[in-house]
Amino acid sequence: ALFTAASCITAALPHFFYGPGEDAVVAARIATSGDISLLNNLTGFKTEEELCHSQTDGVCQEDRGYSYFGSILLLFIAQFFVGIAISIFFSIGVTYLDDNIKKKTYPLYYTLTMLIRILGPVFGFFIGGKCLSIWIDPTKRPNIDKKDPRWLGAWWLGFVFLGLALVVTSLPLFFFPRKLPATLKREKKKMLRQAERDEQEGWNRGLPYFLSLAKTKKEETKPTLKNLIIALKRLFKNKIWTGNLFSATVSLLALSGYWSFKPKYLENQFRKSATEANFYTGLASLVVSVVGAVISGSVLRWFRPGPRYVTGYNVFVTVFTCVGFLALMFVGCPKLDVIGPVNGSVGPTCSADCGCTEKFTPVCAQDKTTLFYSPCYAGCSIDNTTAYPIVYSDCRCVSNSSQPNYAAPIPENERGRATRGYCPEPCNGFFYYFLIQIITKTVSSTSRIGGSIVLLRSVSDEDKGLSLGVITVFISLFGFIPAPIIMGAIIDSACVVWDKSCGISGNCWLYDSEKFRKILHVVPAVLMFISLLGDIVVFHYSGTLDLYGLKEEEIEQNKTQGKSEELKPLKADIDQICKA
């Protein structure tokens, strides 16, 4: 937990070391002074306010990529610490929980744990959305709309808040012992059952035998390279665990790529700002995950379905998720029609002599339906930077009375205005997209707790921590890390407008919405279908699993009172071993 706190603080350091950036500084100065001449200080911002016949010097600054090395290094260190923290906390933590409670009550406790874990990412989306709605320098307020793709949110603010909160909440964890009393009692019961079996077979073993047995067990679980190799061989020969490993890795490869680009997709497809995108993403995760966790935890705790029912349901959920992604592919808004140099077009004739560049600054004509690539391509020659959002006037391609004629400039007395940003679009697609996603995520969330129980019960007690750690490593190396890279490379093929500076491509300003929609949903649907192979393997070999510790209870109930009385002296000896 402290490692996570350190990573949060480290992730925010680039802002304190390097500041908000020159673009943010210039934007704030323009907002406070209204002095457009300040644009001359930055080549990048000069093109952002590019008007018809505005003069640009076309001078490129030298490549300063080396100046980003410090920020990249700090962010890498932060992610490195997060990787260590996740591997430790969610492998040892779950094992510690399972070791100190009864197996039949584990679904209830794990449900509570899941609810808390669900609240974490949800609050992360809410906090992130709130921070992104604040300008990167909270003391300033530029004339840029939050929906504008050039809006710079306070990305660093949430890391500071979370880092300080984690320092406070991690301190109580130091006060827990290595083993709770419940663990010692369970180990004592195992030794007593062994003693009873020995007595039935005619063996009379006392304290020295069990003491040597405890020492042998300790040597076998000692963290050495030899024991690690032996334990890994046990795990990879375990068909149920291997099936779970494959399914978890591939499914998280699919879901991680999708969730990484979902906010960008909502911005591009439904014209939602980064703040709104994070808000709706967090809201969907909160409601459906809580409902799914409560339902599945309650069913597993009180109805206790057999292992085949649990694993079979996981197969159904995977298929249902695939269908959900395919359904989302058909829900969207009409393709955005931009007047300008898009898809091979050279732009309207009415602004052909304005000297426009490829800098993308969308503006909406006063008819609220026509979207221009930039104020320059709308033929605007005057801008009011004190207005919010910025208003452009004397636009040669925008009429104040009738439909514009792009073939020739509009007469001066009929020229209209344009406003920075996208035009409002009457599209109900977002409601149906949100509804389908809630249904899909609700169903998929009901399989998490059952899948966790199957994973823990498929390995021996001494291998639980290692099994969870290995799975964490696999889903990080082959799921979380490559997913954004792979999905990003595929999604880039749908980009139609790149941010270019001195011939170098930067961020994508505008996507082909139809192509983007198909890529974002077909790729995870295919990967989820592939992960189905692992679920089928788990289902096939899961018939003999003891999910709720019922077999151990049956053994306890079959013990006779007489035998327990005979073993009382040995119980005292075993108590001493456990305490030692």
Brief overview, please?
By secondary structure, the chain is α+β, with helices and mostly antiparallel strands. It has helices spanning 2-18, 22-33, 43-48, 69-99, 106-132, 157-170, 181-200, 207-220, 225-237, 239-270, 274-302, 307-328, 429-445, 448-457, 464-480, 482-491, 513-541, 550-557, 561-566, 568-579, and strands spanning 338-339, 363-365, 371-372, 382-384, 391-399, 415-420, 495-501, 504-511.
Notable features of this structure?
alpha+beta; two-stranded antiparallel sheet; 60% helix; elongated; 580 residues; single chain; 7% strand; six-stranded mixed beta sheet
Describe the structure in your own words.
The protein has 580 residues and is of the alpha+beta class. The protein has 20 helices and eight strands. The chain has helices at 2-18, 22-33, 43-48, 69-99, 106-132, 157-170, 181-200, 207-220, 225-237, 239-270, 274-302, 307-328, 429-445, 448-457, 464-480, 482-491, 513-541, 550-557, 561-566, 568-579; strands at 338-339, 363-365, 371-372, 382-384, 391-399, 415-420, 495-501, 504-511. Strand 7 (495-501) and strand 8 (504-511) form a beta hairpin. Helix 10 (239-270) runs parallel beside helix 15 and helix 12 (307-328) packs antiparallel against helix 13. The model is unreliable at 38-48 and 560-564 (pLDDT under 50).
